[in-house]
Amino acid sequence: MRVLLLLQHAFMAWMLIDAIRRRADGYWYLIIFIPFGEWFYFFRIKIHDPEMQWLKNLLHREKIPSLEKVRYQYEQTPSLTNQLRLGQALHDAEEYQEGADLFSKVLKTQPRERDALFGLGLCKIGLNELEDAVGIFERLIESDRAFNDYEPWILLSQSLWGLGRREEALELLEQLVKTSPRTRHAVTHAHFELEAGNPERAHAILREALEHYEHAPKFVKRNDRSWARQAKKMIKTVGSEQTVSAQ
Question: Model confidence over 195-214: pLDDT tens digits?
Answer without folding.
Answer: 999 999 999 999 999 999 99
